[in-house]
Specification:
37% of the residues lie in helices and 15% in strands. Strands 1, 2, 3, 4, 5, 6, 7, 8, 11 and 12 form a 10-stranded mixed sheet that branches. It has a two-stranded antiparallel sheet with strand order 9-10. Helix 5 crosses helix 6 and helix 9 runs parallel beside helix 10. It starts with a strand and ends in a 9-residue tail after the last helix.
């Protein structure tokens, strides 16, 4: 029976719109999601950005969940608005640079600042992390290890972010296509390889979804063409547990495949702002939010019957124990 990990990038409202002023109204919509998770034995991991760590409503909510041991709080670092300030482009709020594009000493300072803020705010040691905008490298990983992190979940196998620009003068995001699909101890000199560090990588659960002929057709059509967009919507090139209001059958198929293949874990994700009407382009209205919750209910019902809900830290403990030959019991 696989473990099920639900990660939430807990951040300001609608960062897809690249706002100049950051708001955190989505914090008020988290209790409904938490209640649904608890109903089905799911333990969400709230990977928390700077603006949410300074939001009183979110902090009260997260402290309550931590006190009841029904969730985990980790770090989610957006480089462009996390102190200390270090302007990298003409307009960082618009370009949203990746942390990996900053000098090594700035990477260190931003990781140190947000880690200390989160630990002081929530009274727990930070252990889990996801990079803002998914991009990660060795310098970033080494900074995490120095600050006591034991789990990262930034890797998206079969997906490249190289064409998603941050600083326009640099090379874009990380290309994860050659990376492993299952959990592994990171090699801090080459994060695409298994190594002997203390940082466990838990990649997103993503599988390829197109035959070779369909992939070749998609490339010939061109990424921006109408036919390519239709093909992408009807038969996505990859499938992951990331609800969008249209992909419930694909998510259920992926979950069942993972159970059949006896995978060690399945990891899903959402953004906190996707739980609020108008907090994302994906769910702009109350009706689309209700469709999201209908899909989540069906998904979590199947998860509760076929998986064991855990946090990232709990999965780390299991992985470390079983890889050393010791079994560890985790409650349903």
């Amino acid at each position: 029976m696989p473990f099920f990990i639900m990660t939430i990038d807990t951040e300001g409202d609608n960062f897809w719109a690249k706002p100049d002023a950051i708001t955190t109204e989505n914090a008020a919509y988290l209790p409904r999601f938490q209640l649904l998770c608890e109903q089905y034995g799911v333990k969400p991991v709230y990977l928390t950005a700077y603006e949410m760590a300074t939001c009183a409503a979110y902090c009260d909510f997260a402290r309550d969940a931590l006190r009841r041991h029904t969730a985990e709080v980790g770090m989610h670092l957006h480089a462009w608005n996390t102190p200390p300030a270090f302007p990298l482009t003409d307009n960082d709020a618009r370009s949203q640079p990746y942390l990996i594009e900053y000098p090594a000493e700035i990477i260190e300072q931003k990781v140190a600042y947000l880690t200390a803020l989160l630990e002081d705010t929530f009274g727990v040691r930070m252990a889990s992390h996801r990079a803002g905008r998914w991009s990660f490298n060795g310098a970033y990983a080494r900074a995490l290890v120095r600050h006591g992190y034991t789990v990262d979940c930034s890797v998206t196998p079969h997906v490249s972010w190289a064409t998603a620009m941050g600083d326009p003068a640099q090379a874009g995001g990380t290309d994860y296509r050659p990376f492993p699909s299952e959990a592994y101890w990171l090699d801090l000199a080459d994060i695409s390889r298994s190594g002997h560090s203390t940082l466990l990588e838990v990649p997103m659960t993503i599988v390829p979804n197109r035959p070779m002929l369909m992939t070749a057709l998609g490339k010939r059509l061109g990424a921006g063409s109408v036919l390519a967009r239709v093909l992408h919507r009807v038969i996505p090139p990859v499938v992951w547990l990331r609800p969008n209001g249209r992909n419930l059958p694909w998510m259920l198929r992926l979950l069942r495949q993972a159970v059949q293949e006896r995978r060690d874990y399945v990891q899903g994700m959402l953004h906190s702002s996707e739980l609020m009407p108008g907090g994302s382009p994906t769910f702009p209205t109350k009706a689309t939010i209700e469709k999201l919750y209908a899909d989540l209910t069906v998904l979590f019902q199947e998860v509760s019957a076929s998986c064991t809900g855990v946090t990232l830290q709990e999965y780390h403990h299991h992985f470390a124990a079983t890889r050393s030959g010791q079994s560890q019991h985790l409650p349903r």
